[in-house]
Amino acid sequence: MGNPEEAITEYKRFIFFSSSTEEIKLGMMKIGEAYRHMGRWDLAADAVHDAILLMRDRSEIATARIRSALDMICAGDYSSAKFDLLEVLNSDVDRSIKIRARFLLGVAEIYEGKRVESAGDLIPSLRGMGVDERDISKLSRLLLTPPAGRRSPKAAALLSAFLPGAGQIYAGCWRDGINALLLNGVIALWVGM
If pLDDT is split at 50, 70 and 90, which confidence band does 81 have? Predict the structure, then answer.
């Protein structure tokens, strides 16, 4: 009825009075769904993890881990998501479940800025899903071609360490670089007097 907070309260009450493991597990999954509707991805993932503790079936556990990983990706917790997805990939479950896990692993790696690693996971998973090879080829080129004009963050940091503002100028932020150079120069003159 559009009131996830009240739904969570009712599901917690349901869990408290339930004696069935299946009902408790269902209640926890529903709590995760309610948190998802609220945009509380971290709490949704926690609720799913609580439900996983009651699961025995490997496929059910793997599917729940994928759901939890998706919540963690939405929350920006990529390392925890990757941990769950690697657990699925290392488990003895159906190939279709592993394909979904590998796809989400590639998505998490994109968010981390790991383009090459993401290509290594996305491309095989898309092939496993039956995606057209021309589309896979386009994605592969996007992921494996370095962005044009991108500067090295290490070089920018090194330049800024030796001459404040030089890293910003190197990165193309002329105004910020000149501002930093002048500000640091004025401070150095003032300290030197």
Answer: very high
pLDDT of residue 21: 92
What does residue 93 show for φ and ψ, rounded to 5 degrees? -130, 175
The Cα 160–Cα 176 span in angstroms is 12
Residue type for 47, please? Answer: A
pLDDT digits (tens, 9 = 90+) for 87-127: 999 999 999 999 999 999 999 998 998 888 988 998 999 88
What is residue 147's predicted lDDT score, i.e. its pLDDT? 66
Q: Which residues of 6-28 are buried (b: 16+ CB within 10 A; e: fewer)?
A: ebbeebeeebeeeeeeeebbbbb
* CA gap 193, 191 in Å, rounded: 6
pLDDT of residue 165: 77
Widest Cα–Cα separation across the chain = 79
